[in-house]
């Protein structure tokens, strides 16, 4: 098997997570023919599998992506930037000329696209492995699935692996900093946890450590496919049901959404993501 890793607009964290699979990485290390972080190779050759890390932010990255698609038998959206826009997608909140002026203060060699796009906006994707980054366990399992030809889909929410107990409460305010009770659902306690609308598989590492899920694995299939389901309104309604609190949209919008640039979420009729982006582009903060 010949494996390539292509890096677009990303922090390289997904590639580091691949290294963190230790033995599993060593098993495939000899198969890697192109990977800027670990392999000294200038040209991307034809490969059986190409993992694409990062969103598409520049015209140059778009060319790299199309080249990768031509050369890959199997193309994988590796990590949430690639699969959903992820952290790179946050740049979509701001107009490109202001981003360049504020961050670089000079002309760039490569022209920015209007948004930071997930890769499936431009090419067909064979597999998605979201996560910011995907945990080493998830990556190792995915590699095993690729090698055996049986990649198992995961479509249960983070709640299924969390183990906290939902109780009905009446909270007065959203909590952010206090230490939560270790056994009770974070929503019940007044923390905004996105676990119920987020694809599991990460073993709920954040909520088990007392930190609300921020949705890095992206929405479950149900949230993606049902036209009436929106990531943000679902959480608004859930916290109202469980904790009797009417969360303001502005508070919810400040919760980082990994799907800002994802067509599948943004273009749903009920999506609130467009409003979040409009708030960034017109109202709040730098525009
Ligand atoms: S998904 Fe997260 S870890 Fe991976 S490249 Fe994007 S920001 Fe980095
Ligand atoms: S909402 Fe969050 S804290 Fe509550 S059960 Fe789901 S993942 Fe756990
Ligand atoms: S708990 Fe949520 S934010 Fe944390 S790794 Fe899992 S999906 Fe990502």
Q: Describe it for me?
A:
There is one protein chain. This protein has helices at 13-19, 23-29, 59-71, 80-84, 86-89, 96-104, 136-148, 159-162, 186-189, 205-208, 221-225, 231-243, 249-253, 263-266, 273-283, and strands at 3-7, 32-34, 47-53, 56-58, 72-78, 112-117, 127-129. With 287 residues, the protein is of the alpha/beta class. It has two domains: 3-148, Rossmann fold; 159-283, no CATH class. The strands form two sheets. Strands 2-1-3-5-7 form a five-stranded parallel β-sheet, sandwiched between helices. It has a two-stranded antiparallel sheet with strand order 4-6. The mean pLDDT is 91. It binds iron/sulfur cluster (3 copies).
Total beta strand runs: 7
Strand order of the largest sheet: 2-1-3-5-7
CATH homology superfamily of the largest domain:
NADH:ubiquinone oxidoreductase-like, 20kDa subunit
Give the uncertain stretches in residue-range form.
none
Mean pLDDT: 91
Structural class: alpha/beta
For the biggest sheet, the summary is: 5 strands, parallel
The CATH C-level name of the largest domain is: Alpha Beta
Q: Count of helical segments?
A: 15
Radius of gyration: 20 Å
CATH architectural name of the largest domain: 3-Layer(aba) Sandwich
Morphology call:
globular
What is the strand content? 5-15%
Helix amount, in percent?
Answer: 25-40%
Small molecules bound in the structure, each named once: iron/sulfur cluster
Total discrete domains: 2
Could you tell me the CATH topology label of the largest domain.
Rossmann fold
Q: How far apart are the termini?
A: 46 Å
């Amino acid at each position: 098997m010949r494996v390539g890793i292509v890096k677009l607009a990303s922090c390289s964290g997904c590639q580091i997570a691949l290294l963190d699979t230790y033995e599993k990485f060593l098993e495939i290390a000899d198969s890697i023919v192109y990977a800027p972080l670990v392999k000294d190779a200038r040209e991307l050759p034809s490969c059986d599998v190409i993992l694409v890390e990062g969103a598409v932010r520049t015209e140059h990255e778009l060319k790299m992506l199309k080249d990768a698609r031509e050369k890959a038998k199997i193309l994988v959206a590796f990590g949430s930037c690639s699969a959903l826009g992820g952290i790179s997608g946050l740049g979509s909140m701001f107009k490109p000329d202001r981003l360049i002026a504020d961050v670089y203060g000079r002309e760039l060699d490569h022209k920015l696209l209007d948004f930071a796009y997930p890769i499936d906006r431009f090419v067909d994707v064979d597999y998605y492995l979201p996560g910011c980054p995907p945990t080493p366990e998830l990556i190792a399992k995915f590699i095993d699935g690729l090698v055996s030809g049986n990649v198992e889909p995961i479509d249960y929410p983070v709640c299924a692996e969390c183990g906290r107990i939902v109780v009905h409460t009446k909270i007065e305010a959203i909590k952010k900093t206090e230490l939560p009770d270790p056994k009770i659902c974070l929503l019940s306690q007044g923390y905004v946890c996105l676990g119920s609308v987020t694809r599991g598989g990460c073993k709920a590492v954040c909520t088990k450590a007392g930190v609300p899920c921020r949705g890095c694995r992206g929405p479950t299939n149900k949230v993606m496919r049902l036209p009436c389901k929106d990531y943000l309104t679902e959480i608004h309604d859930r916290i109202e049901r469980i904790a009797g609190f009417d969360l303001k949209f502005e508070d919810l919008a400040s919760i980082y959404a990994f799907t800002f640039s994802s067509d599948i979420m943004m273009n749903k009729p009920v999506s609130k993501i467009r409003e979040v982006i409009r708030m960034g582009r017109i109202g709040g903060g730098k525009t």
